[in-house]
Known about the structure:
The chain is α+β, with helices and mostly antiparallel strands.
Amino acid sequence: MKWLVRGLLAVLALVVLLAAAGLVYRQRALPTTEGRLQAGGLRAALTIERDAHGIPTIRAASLQDAWFGLGFAHAQDRLWQLETHKRIASGRLAEAFGANALEADKFLRALGVRRSAERQWQQASPDVRGMLEAYSAGINAFIAEHLAARPPEFVLLGLQPQAWSPLDSLGWSTMMAWDLGANWGSELLRLKLALLMPTERIAQLLPPYPGETPLATQDYAGLYRRLGISADKPAPGATAGLALPWQPESAVEGAGSNNWVVAGTRSRTGSPLLANDPHLKLSAPALWYFARLEAPGLKVAGATMPGLPLVVLGQNEHVAWGFTNTAPDVQDLYLERINTADAPGTKQRYETPDGWAQFEQFAETIRVKGQPDVAFNARQSRHGPVISDAGGAVAGLVGIDPEGPAAPGYALALRWTALDADASATLDAGLAFNRARSVDEFIAASAQYVAPMQNMVVADAERIAMVAAGRVPLRRPDNDLRGLAPAPGWDARYDWAGFVAASETPRERDPARGWIATANQRVHGPQYPHYITSEWAPPYRQQRIEQLLAARPLHSVESLAAIQADVFSAATQRLLPLLQRAKSPHALAAAAQHELKGFEGTMTAERAAPLIFWAWARQLTHGVFSDDVGPVLLERQLASRGFRDALEGVLERDDTGWCDDQRTPVVETCAGQSDAAFTRALDELQALQGPDVTQWRWGQAHTARSEHRPFSRVAGLAPWFELRTPVGGDTYTVNVSRVGLRPDATTGELYLDEHGPSLRAIYDLGDRAKSRFMHSSGQSGLALSNDYRNFVERWSRNEYLPVWGDGRAGRVLTLVPR
């Protein structure tokens, strides 16, 4: 008996000891937010005052020290996020996460983001250099002098924080441009589809913007056949060999962003109001970090981004601004033809309009955790980085193995504006936005902006405007591929012919209607002379925003907040009648149709009808398209574009050519496919939420998940690090919550929302005290902190915090030079 008592006491002592160690670790890991600290690299004393929500106000005696203070605060609260940003931009994920990240590192090394950052640093202006150096010094002062205990991610992965450099900021700026402007995936998708179907059929699967006709292009499917381009693909239905490579962080389609600005003539206060909610991948912590900066010549508040020393979206003493993605076609893929006469294994020459040229070569070494280093050779053509050097599916698609023996084939190179050596001018523009004193100054500053191209709405106390700012390539009139599909790199007609003048991008000032709204729709009229893109998002959100703006003569902060919370999905209107006519022998069919009665498309979390609609739409998409494109490629697309606009067109045309399943001997009709999809959807939902249809809930399946890197992929750690909350809405509502239509890779869940309003903000230009904002997680990136998840419920309820604080005294940390 004594041994049992002693054993229990030993276990109890161990538990107490571990609990005490945990408390000590937590106390040491949390940053010091009160008192006085010395910091090397600081010029004069500054204060960081955090309010009750963890939002800092940084007051400094100079701009340089303000950037230093922001870097210090970012490092205190978001050190692991900074580490992941650094590793992504430099292609150094595998040394932290192991061999599973090797494919991503190869792609990032082939893309050459770090090499591009080095070129951009050489051309950066003195202002940008000084800003990035001061910001980096602030991060590094915290790491070197005041990091008492590493955040848990570092401890669990056995990593030490890395010093930050200006190149890391430039690299992360490029990666955000990648996230918001990576239309190369659409070109690669067309190349893959060209191996399965003719060009005319691809135009139906990827239809043009509503009201427009497909761009006139050459038969690129025939072109690729003539060039002998093929993939080692099995028969339709098993296209695993055609998977896309490592993907950008978030797709734009259907989940871009909203912004609008209301003139004083349409405002209850007589001054303009501006609203913005950028839709990006939800992450834990959020991509955004709220801050207020005060220094001589600078007083600005809003959303900063760890890794960059600026308020990206916000308000200063004179103007407020907000962005949505223009999603321009600023990337072109080029097939570079390899000289087969070169010695085996070299593949150094490729064809140009002037003969054969040598690739630039870059020897890279990729460190892999727990495994030997991997040597990697990256190349660059006259167009840009050779992304097929990453190997895998891209290389196989064009018939080349960069690590194998010489063989006839092609390399795939990328031309992209954000890799240009002068792209650091985007940060010059950002600095000018933070200090702009009027709408005119803001628009003038936007001429420096390179990438990612954004629809920027801006207001001062008197005026409102929109400018689509960013560098847009000009394509020659005889470019018969229009940038839609990979082009022969040896043919000069496919080279870019310069750029649209910065003064000629789409813009609008003080319209008579009294507002400007953008939601990734086409932002120019039919007479606009330049080609921006052919892949605008469907205009459902923009039309709904304008409908609600027109519904009342005068607006307030509260009415704009109601618009941001709107969950009516206009996209249901084209498909809903077909669902409501669907027939099924399923035992739950009558109950499901009862739930659909009176459903007009309002996607509230508490209703069953939105869940029934989306389950049916998903099953119908599979039924109509999987035989044509194969289930693997279809599942990949269901994670982003989903062929939704194509499905609407097929059903409205009653197009049996698509609705017929080629794998069966009978001829399926579109109505038959709808009925069958309804039955399959009911089977799915019965298994998911039980046999009582009245208890089905959209929000139970449609959960907003803010992913944590990397612990969302570790079952035992995910509940501690990722953030979840039920939400309404869908891919096409103003209050966007994009519907994930393929099973989650880790949990198998359907209908997860992982892209949404990463930030909501409303700015009052007449009374800054009424300006408000909210993001999707909490200010801290430390899961141990009370500020890690304290915004989640407020965000899900569409609540806000004051942009400029509530005037109450907070925790004050004073930094003084060492």
